[in-house]
Each structure stands twice: as structure tokens, then as C-alpha cells.
């Protein structure tokens, strides 16, 4: 009986921790001439939004949406896009103050979520020469 309970708790612990992963977001890019712009953002690897039923939980039906938790990282990566900035509508950012919200020379930006962050965060991604792109972050405390 104890072994069965241990196995059962291990299985459920694995499911509970599955939505606690850092998230890497990859830009899908559309190129016109020499200009690359964002057409979508997808989660690379484990998708924190996925439920046991295969749906996307709080992001179900919302395109370009990512789920995360406090103290986790979100990283954006471009292929051809090396220069971009992230900005939040309103004055609220879920990230720690030391996050500059600008990509590095390799087209990457990685920020840690604040410990007290919770809720929905609509934001934009600005690529010079392109229309701003408008995705969403949903952060759950538990």
C-alpha cells in the first residue's frame, strides 16, 4: 500500500511540476525583402499551459499566449530578428527591475518573473521597421 501511494504521489508531483518550467518563446518570422517581422510566437519545449486533457488552460483559444509562475524565466528568441524590445501596456511589468526588456546581440532576451507577480500581462514586441506584435503572459501564483 505504501509503495502504491508513493508511486501515485510521484506521478502527480510530476504533473504538478510540469507547469513550473522556464519558458522559451520562439518567433515565427515573415520576411519581406531584407526585413523580418514577427508573425507568431510559440513555446519551445514544455508548454506550461498544457493540461492533462491536452488543452491550453488559461491560454485556451488565445494565440501567442504563455503561462508561467513567479521566479521563473521567460526567454524570447529571434532567428533573423536580432534587435527587438518588449514593452507592457500600462505601468506594470511582471519582471524584476533589472530586466532591460531589450534583446542582446544574439537576438535573445531572458527575464525572471517577480515573486509577487500574478495575473494577465498584455505586452508588445517592437521590431524596428515592423508593426508591433501583441502577445500575452499569464502568471499563476499556484
Give a short overview:
Keywords: Signal. The chain is mainly beta and 142 residues long. The protein has a single domain (19-139), classed as Immunoglobulin-like (Sandwich), CATH 2.60.40.
How would you characterize this protein structure?
The structure is a single chain. The chain has a single domain, classed as Immunoglobulin-like (Sandwich), CATH 2.60.40. It is built from 1 helix and 8 strands; from the N terminus they run H-E-E-E-E-E-E-E-E. It has a 4-stranded mixed β-sheet with strand order 2-1-4-6, with no helix packed on it. A 4-stranded mixed β-sheet has the order 3-8-7-5, with no helix packed on it. The N terminus is likely disordered. The relative contact order is 0.20. With 142 residues, the chain is mainly beta. Helix content is 12%, strand content 35%. Keywords: Signal. This is Ig-like domain-containing protein. It comes from Rheinheimera maricola.
CATH class category name: Mainly Beta
Give the SSE string.
HEEEEEEEE
In spatial order, strands of the major sheet run: 2-1-4-6
Question: What would you call the shape?
Answer: globular
**Which runs of at least 5 residues are low in confidence (pLDDT < 50)?**
1-18
Structural class: mainly beta
Q: What is the average of the pLDDT values? A: 85
Radius of gyration: 17 Å
Helix coverage percent of residues?
A: 10-25%
How many domains comprise the coordinates?
1
Estimate the strand proportion: 35-45%
Q: What's the oligomerization state?
A: single chain
CATH-derived topology: Immunoglobulin-like
Query: At CATH's second level, what is the architecture?
Result: Sandwich
Please give the number of β-strands. Answer: 8
Calculate the terminal CA-CA distance, rounded to whole Å.
29 Å
Give the biggest sheet. Answer: 4 strands, mixed
Keywords: Signal
Signal peptide: 1-18
Protein name: Ig-like domain-containing protein
Organism: Rheinheimera maricola
Amino acid at each position: 500500500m505504501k509503495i502504491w501511494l508513493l508511486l501515485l504521489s510521484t506521478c502527480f508531483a510530476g504533473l504538478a511540476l510540469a507547469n513550473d518550467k522556464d519558458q522559451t518563446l520562439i518567433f515565427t518570422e515573415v520576411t519581406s525583402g531584407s526585413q523580418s517581422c514577427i508573425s507568431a510566437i510559440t513555446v519551445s519545449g514544455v508548454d506550461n499551459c498544457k493540461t492533462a486533457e491536452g488543452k491550453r488552460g488559461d491560454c485556451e483559444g488565445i494565440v501567442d499566449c504563455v503561462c508561467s509562475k513567479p521566479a521563473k524565466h521567460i526567454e524570447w528568441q529571434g532567428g533573423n530578428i536580432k534587435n527587438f524590445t518588449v514593452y507592457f501596456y500600462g505601468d506594470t511589468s511582471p519582471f524584476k527591475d533589472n530586466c532591460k526588456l531589450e534583446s542582446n546581440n544574439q537576438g535573445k532576451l531572458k527575464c525572471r518573473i517577480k515573486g509577487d507577480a500574478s495575473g494577465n500581462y498584455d505586452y508588445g514586441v517592437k521590431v524596428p521597421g515592423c508593426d508591433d506584435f501583441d502577445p500575452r503572459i499569464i502568471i499563476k501564483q499556484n
